[in-house]
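wait is this the right file?? whatever heres the structure
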């Protein structure tokens, strides 16, 4: 209760007249976000997807009978906000977003869910800045398709971990490098066909070149800073990060086979009905059952948790003992 009061006091001191707050003193982005096709109005579908992809990593944290305090990063107009609150009804929900233009819609979403200020807080915060909140303040830090927009994603995860209380969960949903790399290979193979139209070939070339450019510059912060979509996350990268921070890493995804993921991503590039039929035929003939059963979908959700058990395991290892023996 003491920490809850500290958070609400900190929020109240930074409240605007419109019921929104500011979590940092850095500059706000000046340009409006690109919303069309990326941020949909919250619906029951938002809740259904949340329960498939996010809930498996959150259930034991959010249903343990203790006070649940949530910080969402990059809330947009409230898609994940809507699904999280509909699913768990947490005690406190701070939905943050770097673009001030989105705050009124986010505020309205919280109010309609019965989360008036300060129980539901719409906040301006760029995740590249340190938030003005006490450490170990939240049970959950969550983000839906936001971490890949942040240039220094490791620093953003470190900030998020510092905000978690004991046994809290950091949960983000992001694009999957392993699946996207295989998709690029299949697109290249499909584009060798003489039977598809010139326009479809042009679109496929642009698609592959764009993805391969992102793969090449994944560690070039200067180049990444100019892109809106910056990262495609690898399991190996996340495993290395989690191990170096002594946290547990868990991963969840939609139940999608590779063939479905491949067709879903490439189909919009087909310029003619005939090309669409050729893509379906190609996918059925070249995607093996083994590949379908091995790869996750193009989007996955991961959780990082620093628990008493993980700290104990690290302590045992430091003393030269095998915690699994």
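ok assuming it is, sequence goes like this
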């Amino acid at each position: 209760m003491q920490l809850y009061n500290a958070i609400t006091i900190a929020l109240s001191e930074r409240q605007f007249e419109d019921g929104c707050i500011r979590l940092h003193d850095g500059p706000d982005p000046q340009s409006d976000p690109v919303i069309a096709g990326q941020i949909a109005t919250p619906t029951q579908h938002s809740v259904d997807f949340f329960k498939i992809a996010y809930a498996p990593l959150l259930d034991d944290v959010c249903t343990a009978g203790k006070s649940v305090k949530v910080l969402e990063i990059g809330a947009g107009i409230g898609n994940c906000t809507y699904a999280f609150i509909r699913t768990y009804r947490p005690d406190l929900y701070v939905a943050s977003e770097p673009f001030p233009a989105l705050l009124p819609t986010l505020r309205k979403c919280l109010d309609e869910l019965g989360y008036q200020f300060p129980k539901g807080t719409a906040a301006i915060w760029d995740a590249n800045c340190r938030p003005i909140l006490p450490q170990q303040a939240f049970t959950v830090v969550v983000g839906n398709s936001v971490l890949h927009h942040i240039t220094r994603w490791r620093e953003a995860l470190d900030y998020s971990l510092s905000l978690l209380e004991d046994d809290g969960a950091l949960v983000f949903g992001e694009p999957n490098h392993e699946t996207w790399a295989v998709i690029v290979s299949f697109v290249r193979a499909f584009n060798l066909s003489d039977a598809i139209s010139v326009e479809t070939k042009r679109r496929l070339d642009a698609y592959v070149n764009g993805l391969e450019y992102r793969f090449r510059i994944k560690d070039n912060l200067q180049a990444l800073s100019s892109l809106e979509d910056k990262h495609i996350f690898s399991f190996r990268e996340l495993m290395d990060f989690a191990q170096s921070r002594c946290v547990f890493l868990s991963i969840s995804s939609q139940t999608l086979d590779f063939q479905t993921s491949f067709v879903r991503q490439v189909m919009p590039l087909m310029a003619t009905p005939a090309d669409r039929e050729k893509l379906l035929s190609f996918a059925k003939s070249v995607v093996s059952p083994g590949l379908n059963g091995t790869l996750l979908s193009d989007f996955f959700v991961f959780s990082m948790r620093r628990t008493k058990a993980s700290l104990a395991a690290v302590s045992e290892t430091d003393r030269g003992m095998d915690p699994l023996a």
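The first helix runs from residue 2 to 12. so i think its the right one actually
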